[in-house]
Amino acid sequence: MTTTPEANQTPRVKLLGKTGSALGYMIRDFLHRSDVPFEWIELTNDEQARTQAAVTGLNDGRLPVCLFSDGTRLECPTIRQMTEKLGWFRDPSRSEYELAIYGAGPAGLSAAVYGASEGLSTVVVERSAVGGQAGSSSKIENYLGFPSGISGAELAERARQQACRFGAEILLGREGVRGEFLPGKGVGYLADGTKLVARSTICATGVEYRRLGLPNESRFLGAGVYYGAGASEASLCRADEDIFVVGGGNSAGQSAMHFARVARSVTMVVRDASLKSTISKYLLDRISAAPNVRVSANSEVTALEGDEILETIVVTNRLSGIEQTFATRWLFVCIGGVPQTGWAAEVGIVRDDAGYLVTGPDLLRENRPPNGWPLDRNPYYLETNVPGVFAVGDVRHGSIKRCASAVGEGAMAVAFVHRYLADG
To answer: pTM to 2 decimals?
Structure first.
């Protein structure tokens, strides 16, 4: 099967691989979220693998193979190799920046646009593709200024271009692993050994997708189990297939409506009694009106079965305990996320019980700053208990989980960065 997700664009990349390849899924997701036109060529037998991908067979360790329009061939590539080939991998150009931003989701990209446009030397670190979780959304319909909606990937790519035009440096394929914060200076250490020095820091790392916690779950990643809205996979679904989406929030609703256009049926598996309290009304109305979308309320997925790829799932009613088994090779998990903020605990940044970074007024006790706060003023609204270190978007305690809110926090944080730098 050959599928071109970006049907109206000339593919820059041909990706050849077999069904159930976790790496193949990761590359498809990366290309989709990066708004790179690509063609996925599914290899179904050894002969196809030999003739089309020039490998020995479907089990050849060189799969998947990426073919670029200039003739370059990459075998079993890493995301970093893809980033390098696309010309997006770069080293920092400065020994020190005024602002370092970790995370290139809506909040981080917004901070980059406003920081760079206002004259701050700005660097952004992102371990994968720009856009964060919003980048995997098929369509964001309630974002101001886009009455017909916009895909998360397109919104992120526009923001990336805008930030770069103002002079922000974006380091893709990099991951921060450790930080040190001294008076007036922060040092971020990346996984590849790169060291970034900046006078101020904005943490916009978002959250990791929450897992179901089931046996076999990791084995089926990219082979039937997917996290997030899964916009990159919609074109691979057949019209005779049944898709399951776990979750009752907006991302789950958007995913269900997106897949409803291509699949025979979509079932939303929801722990609550209904969607009314967890989803925007415009989405609720569309889900209710869609003839091939149903909601399995008071339910959860309790088992995953299959050989090389997902074949069946078990859905259990939380009230009656009744179990039902469904055949499917598509399960999309949209049940929120978990902040990855272990690094913050190591440097003494305050987190709440769930691991989110605490900022501004939430740090105060009887209108007094937290213990160890070294300045005469209270922490700014988005500032952590370490002066000059700010948190925005989903990673922040008490944040509103909306794209527009994240963008607003990114812009607001830059205003506080200016104040902080002026104080110093």
So the answer is: 0.92
